[in-house]
Design brief:
Number of strands of chain A: 15
Helix content of chain A: 25-40%
CATH superfamily of the largest domain in chain B: Thiolase/Chalcone synthase
Order of helices and strands of chain B: EHEHEHEHHHHHEEEHEHEHHHHEE
Number of domains of chain B: 2
Number of helices of chain A: 11
Distance between the termini of chain A: 58 Å
Strand content of chain A: 15-25%
CATH class of the largest domain in chain B: Alpha Beta
Largest sheet of chain A: 7 strands, parallel
Radius of gyration of chain A: 22 Å
Structural class of chain B: alpha/beta
Structural class of chain A: alpha/beta
Number of helices of chain B: 14
CATH architecture of the largest domain in chain A: 3-Layer(aba) Sandwich
Shape of chain B: globular
Shape of chain A: globular
Oligomer: heterodimer
Strand order of the largest sheet of chain B: 3-2-4-7-1-8-11-10-9
Bound molecules: zinc ion
CATH architecture of the largest domain in chain B: 3-Layer(aba) Sandwich
CATH topology of the largest domain in chain B: Peroxisomal Thiolase, Chain A, domain 1
Helix content of chain B: 25-40%
Largest interface: A-B, 39 and 38 residues
Largest sheet of chain B: 9 strands, mixed
CATH class of the largest domain in chain A: Alpha Beta
Chain lengths: 418, 378
């Protein structure tokens, strides 16, 4: 049974913050597809399109029939631990700091045997459930979990190294005025976050749900307007060293294509929040989080962006908003590059039409703010970096993966709502 | 025929590159045999740390103009496989005198550096899991092997202790302190169930020998040994979930019939011993005992140079040290010494036949290359 995680003590300001050490990051080009699947929380291996042989490690050719057609497919995640060891020395500093470390050989139901990290509750020769996740280096690795849920299972340190669990962590939610922001705060509190800083612009202006929000345990209302550089910097100066998780719930959404607008005023407002707002947050909070990626049980661990799925490909009905979201998506990719090697994950949730006033005319199916908040918590506790939410988003992402240029044609042909 | 065993004393760390160690052993080979660059027309090299050079670059460096050249990348199996290749070259007339040299350096950080870039499969699928290197892979093999065949830690301990006893009689061994079974049993865990004394110490060093025709060795007045049989095999039993047998099991019938002797005729065995589990596996898979009975076999024999089953008579890598690819030459060079009157304090009395086996390249989860040879005294 896993020991329950204890609340980390208050930090001694005299003490040096540990520099992040990293597990090995070098991978072959073929293995990057495994990392992508891990970032999406999928357990995928190469399967031969001609003979169905499942192969591992990543190869260029099927070792059974020499076909070059090896496809990455989701495969059954069951298996059995057939041999294990506890490493007590390592040549790598990241692991050396974390010894002892448990690894083992898993015979997968799908065929191959693999080497994996082993959750502490997996017993000798027991059946396991495999997950693939990105590690602190941002590369995909496998972990074998007990087949059934165990007490305090999420607190296992080898699992927690792969996740961004809010338990005993501190979070910043950038906009608490909306239903989405408020549901996010509640979900974080329920997931065990100890302090939740909630940004509210123009605090004197009343808003719906304020009393319930302030009553949530651990909530601290902070003045924050992400369209204002000074406001963002002031907040970062005050609590930036306590942002273990940052969830950017601020968004600016208006219907309309380019020709339906007059001038650039609205588009500028969209960019102020969706693009420059994100940029201000990154500049103010990014360096501090990056430096705290190895800061114990409440290290900085995740930056969450909530993006419309039309950030992938423009939907002219929300044409200029899509453009600002595309800019934000691009910036999030830059952030992922800047956080690489820090141990902080960039989690992007791509969602379909949200149940809120500015998207009111859109037909169902829609995503409720509660669903979106729950999805973010799931991504954090599971350590998943790329999330797609809702039937519309899933459909768009599937088509995007098949061919982004065909998707562009589909979204811009006659009768797409224009 | 095989002759002129040469071993350069090992060092824990060396600032010199692999080139220096290979040069040093070549120089020793020349002194010992009386042969020089004009006499050697074949060269075979095995080394992990020679980058950016290969055997080709060494010909110019060493002033050789060989008509036959090879670079054998099979690590712990390189001694036997080099012997096999060189003997075929001499047999077919492609070369007359082949210098087989192996050596590696060990800088302060070079073991870690070698592990990080050892192979694509290990980079993708084993190194990211704790970076235990061979300790991790072999602990998984050891634990599975112990479960499958009822082998006990005491059995491995007995092999390690006997090797240390042998090493005390071999001047070049790095480990010079005696080891007791109690010390072995209570040693610090490295990767369960592997303990400190199951692991080799990486170091710098070099080993070498010459392959030539019998009449050439006689003309040069060099003591030599015959090659009776060799086999090699790669990626054997790929579908075994964890490696508990090696390529020898596939090749053993051919191996013994080629040699024309049986396992009982062998006077000494040199196994590749980066961990004792692999020595035990070689004893079984080469037919010295039935598969699954190695525990009994170990309990009913003694393994020192003067024991009932002399094994790794110089102390093996476990006590001499592991000088990279030269670890794959150590047992072969020791066997040649034993059969040509070169062994001193640790000489096996009246040794007629020596078996040597090799095992190498933990590419992902198992060793891929295996080989074995029988040498006979003339
Ligand atoms: Zn195939």
């Amino acid at each position: 049974m896993t020991d329950a995680l204890k609340r980390p003590p208050k930090k001694d300001p005299q003490k040096r913050t540990n520099s992040p050490t990293l597990p090995p990051y070098a991978r072959s080009r073929k293995a990057i597809a495994f990392t992508l699947a891990a970032a999406e929380g999928r357990f995928a291996l190469q399967v031969c399109a001609e003979c169905e042989h499942v192969t591992y490690p990543a190869r260029e050719v099927c070792p059974k029939c020499w076909s070059m057609e090896l496809e990455w497919r989701d495969i059954p995640d069951g298996g059995k631990l057939i041999s294990e060891t506890t490493l007590r020395t390592s040549v790598n500093s990241y692991f050396r700091e974390r010894m002892p470390w448990r690894i083992g050989t898993i015979q997968l139901d799908a065929g191959p045997t693999v080497l994996a990290h082993i959750h502490g509750d997996v017993g000798e020769f027991e059946r396991v459930r495999m997950i693939a996740r990105t590690d602190k280096s941002g590369q995909g690795v496998m972990l074998a979990l007990p087949e059934k849920e165990t007490p305090n299972m999420a607190d296992d340190r080898q699992l927690r190294a792969l996740t961004c669990n809010p338990k005993y962590r501190r979070a910043l939610v950038t906009d608490g005025r909306t239903e989405l922001g408020q549901r996010m705060v509640k979900a974080l509190a329920d997931a065990g976050a100890t302090r939740i800083f909630v940004g509210i612009a123009e605090k004197w202006r009343p808003y719906e749900g304020s009393e319930a929000l302030e009553a949530i345990p651990g909530v601290e209302i902070m003045p924050l307007d992400i369209t204002d550089t000074i406001s963002v910097n002031e907040l970062a100066a005050e609590m930036g060293d306590k942002a273990d998780i940052l969830i950017n719930t601020a968004e600016y959404v208006r219907p309309g294509s380019v020709m339906q607008r007059h001038g650039v005023t609205l588009a500028r407002d969209e960019m102020e929040t969706n693009y420059f707002g994100l940029m201000r947050l990154i500049q103010a909070f990014g360096p501090g989080m990056k430096a705290r990626g190895a800061d114990g049980d409440n290290s900085a661990c995740a930056w969450v962006n909530l993006l419309s799925v039309y950030s992938l490909s423009n939907w002219p009905v929300y044409g200029t908003t899509s453009a600002s979201q595309a800019a934000a998506l691009s910036l999030s990719q830059c952030l992922r590059g800047e956080f690489a090697g820090s141990g902080v994950k960039v989690i992007n949730v791509l969602f379909g039409p949200l149940e809120e006033s500015w998207r009111q005319p859109l037909p169902p199916p829609k995503v409720t703010p509660q669903r979106l908040a729950d999805t973010v918590i799931h991504a954090l506790t599971q350590g998943i970096e790329n999330v797609t939410l809702g039937p519309v988003a899933e459909d768009v992402v599937r088509r995007y993966k098949e061919d982004p240029f065909v998707l562009e044609r589909e979204l811009t042909q006659i009768n797409q709502g224009m | 025929m095989v002759t002129a065993p040469a071993s350069v004393p090992y060092e824990r760390y060396s600032p010199e590159p692999a080139h220096w160690w290979l040069a040093r052993v070549l120089s020793d080979l020349g002194k010992q045999s009386g042969l020089g660059a004009d006499d050697v027309d074949g060269l075979c090299v095995s080394s992990f740390t020679l980058f950016p050079d290969t055997a080709a670059g060494l010909t110019q460096h060493f002033g050789l103009t060989p008509r036959w050249l090879d670079h054998v990348p099979t690590g712990g199996a390189s001694g036997v496989i080099t012997l096999r290749r060189a003997a075929r070259a001499v047999q077919s007339g492609d070369a007359s005198v082949v210098a087989c040299i192996s050596g590696d350096t060990n800088h302060v950080d070079s073991f870690r550096a070698m592990l990080t870039t050892f192979s694509r499969f290990s980079q993708d699928a084993s190194y990211p899991y704790g970076s235990g290197g061979p300790n991790g892979s072999f602990s998984l093999m050891t634990s599975r092997y112990m479960d499958a065949y009822g082998v006990k830690r005491e059995d491995f301990g007995k092999l390690c202790v006997a090797q240390r006893d042998n090493a005390l009689k071999y001047p070049h061994a790095m480990m010079k302190k005696p080891l007791t079974l109690d010390e072995y049993m209570s040693a610090r865990l490295i990767a369960d169930p592997i303990v400190l004394y199951d692991c080799v110490m990486p170091c710098a060093g070099a080993e070498a020998y010459l392959v030539m025709r019998e009449e050439d060795a006689r003309a040069q007045n060099l003591p030599y040994a015959h090659i009776l049989s060799t086999v090699e095999r790669h990626n054997s039993y790929p579908d075994d979930p964890v490696q508990i047998r090696g390529g020898w099991a596939l090749d053993k019938d051919e191996f013994w019939s080629m040699a024309g002797i049986s396992p009982g005729d062998v006077d000494l065995l040199q196994t590749y011993d980066d961990y004792p589990v692999i020595s035990a596996m070689q004893m079984e898979d080469l037919g010295f005992c039935e598969k699954g009975s190695v525990s009994e076999f170990i309990q009913s024999n003694t393994f020192t140079y003067d024991g009932t089953f002399p094994h790794n008579t110089s102390g093996g890598q476990l006590s001499v040290g592991q000088a990279g690819a030269a670890g794959g030459f150590l047992g072969l060079v020791e066997a040649i010494r034993q059969l040509t009157g070169g062994a001193e304090q640790n000489a096996v009395p009246d040794a007629q036949y020596a078996a040597v086996s090799g095992f190498g390249i933990i590419n992902f989860d198992r060793g891929l290359c295996s080989g074995a040879a029988i040498l006979g005294r003339t």
